[in-house]
Each structure stands twice: as C-alpha cells, then as structure tokens.
C-alpha cells in the first residue's frame, strides 16, 4: 500500500521554516520551476516566497510491503508555480499480472505534468494539464490521478479521475471532500495507455475558495480506504501549524494504523 499525504496550510504571511516542510512567504519572488517528487520515502520541495499566500507542503509515501523494493506504484509532484500545484497519481496494480510495472505509467504521467505546469496552453487549468500530461505519456499502464492548483487569491482548482482523494479541513471540520469515480467496486476511473480508459473529459472538476488556516490533505485511495475522515481531522488539528510538529509526527499514528490494517489484511 502506498500513501502519499499532502498537508498544505494557507495563510496571509509566515516566515520560511525548517526542513520538515516548505512555505511561501512575502520576502521574495517565486522562481518559475517545479520539482518532481516521484517515490521518495519523505521529500520536501524548497519553495521561495509568495506575496499573497503562504503555502506549506509536506509529503510522505508508504509502499505496500510487497512493493517496497521498487518504491511502490504511486507518484506525485509539487510545484511552486503561481500559488502552488500538487498532484498524485496511483498506478493501477492489475498491470502487474501482465508483467507490466504499474509504477512506470504513474511516474511518467507526473513527470509530464510537472513539465507542462507552466505551459501557456494549460493556462493554469488542472484539467488541461491532465490532458497534456496524459497525451505525452508513452508507458504502458494506467493510473488514477488528482491535480490541485492554488491561485494566488486563494481559489483552489481541482481535477480528479478515479479514487485519489482530497480533504479540506477548516477549524476542525471537513469543509470539502472529493468524490471517487468508479465503474464498479475496485475498478476506478483511470487514465490509461489503452483506448478503453478515461480521458481528461471524464475528470471531476471542482473550485474551492480557501481561507487562512485551511489544511489540505491529499492522497491515493491507500490513505482514505484505511483511515476515517475523523481520524485525519484529529491528527491535523492537534497542531496549530505544520511547522510546530512536522508532517511525519502529525501523521505518525495514521501511518501506524495503515500498517496495522495491512497486517490484518494479510493475516485474514
């Protein structure tokens, strides 16, 4: 099971803080670059300042015990372009039955998304970014995917195909929850190398207005299938700011629960 988790705090101003997470502040201009974070166990991108909003991102992946050696099948990227971009792709494991590495498609998809994030044609539209990234992906396979783009004015634009998820937490309550798309149980919508798959036109597109102090948790179904929403809220609301404890400690007990769930699953 692979679980990339993003926690983003939005605020009017905060200084840069330690290596546990990244933050935008009002001290300098934003470099036009992005960093692909495909499968590291714990990664953070160095993001410089943004005059309107402060955007903090911490990431972590937990490979399924059977997939640790190849780093799992999920991929993600974080970009500091504009107000910030975060995305997750979950490689569909069924391809392994055809001797295809499910991680190749999701990683290339995210690499392409990272490449096109500043493209003029994309025009900071997550659905168009999804289209161009998918069209440029040549690996065999498929993946569920979610892309979130933050405007400088606090508007978060989300496009999702499949069952990767996103929660927005405000003052201890979930104010927004993305909805999974699936054909039937355990068969989610997915972008694919095959013509039978879905396209960007099938994406569920949402726009949400964020306010200071909102927290965003994004991840693959490996997170939301194993951790209840109230548990996610409980973990994130223990700390006023990500910088006070860091992503690893905030989600530590959630990770333990996930690993315990996996152990139970194998036992049963």
UniProtKB/TrEMBL annotation:
Name the UniProt record assigns to this protein: Protein phosphatase
UniProt domain PPM-type phosphatase: residue ranges: 59-268
Signal peptide start-end: none
Gene3D superfamilies assigned to the protein according to its UniProt record, in alphabetical order: PPM-type phosphatase domain (3.60.40.10)
Domain of life where this protein originates: Eukaryota
Family, similarity comment: Belongs to the PP2C family.
InterPro entries according to UniProt: PPM-type-like_dom_sf, PPM-type_phosphatase-like_dom, PPTC7
GO MF annotation, one: protein serine/threonine phosphatase activity
């Amino acid at each position: 099971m692979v679980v990339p988790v993003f926690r983003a705090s939005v605020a009017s101003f905060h200084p840069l803080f330690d290596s546990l997470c990244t933050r935008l502040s009002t001290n300098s201009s934003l470099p036009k670059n992005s960093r692909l974070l495909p499968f590291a166990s714990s990664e953070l991108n160095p993001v410089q300042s943004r005059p309107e909003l402060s955007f903090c991102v911490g990431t972590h992946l937990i490979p399924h015990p059977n997939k640790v050696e190849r780093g799992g099948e999920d991929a993600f990227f974080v970009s500091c372009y504009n107000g910030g971009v975060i995305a997750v792709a979950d490689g569909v494991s069924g391809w392994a039955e055809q001797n295809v590495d499910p991680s190749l498609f999701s990683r290339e998809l995210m690499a392409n998304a990272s490449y096109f994030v500043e493209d003029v044609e994309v025009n900071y539209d997550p659905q168009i970014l999804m289209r161009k990234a998918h069209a440029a992906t040549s690996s065999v396979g498929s993946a569920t995917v979610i892309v979130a783009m933050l405007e400088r004015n606090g508007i978060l634009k989300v496009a999702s195909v499949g069952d990767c998820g996103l929660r927005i937490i405000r003052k201890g309550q979930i104010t927004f929850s993305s909805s999974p798309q699936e054909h039937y149980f355990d068969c989610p919508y997915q972008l694919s190398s095959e013509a039978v798959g879905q396209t960007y036109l099938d994406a569920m597109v949402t726009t949400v207005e964020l306010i200071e102090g909102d927290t965003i948790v994004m991840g693959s179904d490996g997170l939301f299938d194993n951790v209840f929403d109230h548990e996610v809220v409980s973990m994130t609301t223990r700390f006023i700011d990500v910088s006070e404890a860091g992503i690893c400690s905030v989600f530590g007990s959630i990770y333990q629960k996930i690993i315990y769930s996996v152990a139970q699953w194998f036992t049963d």
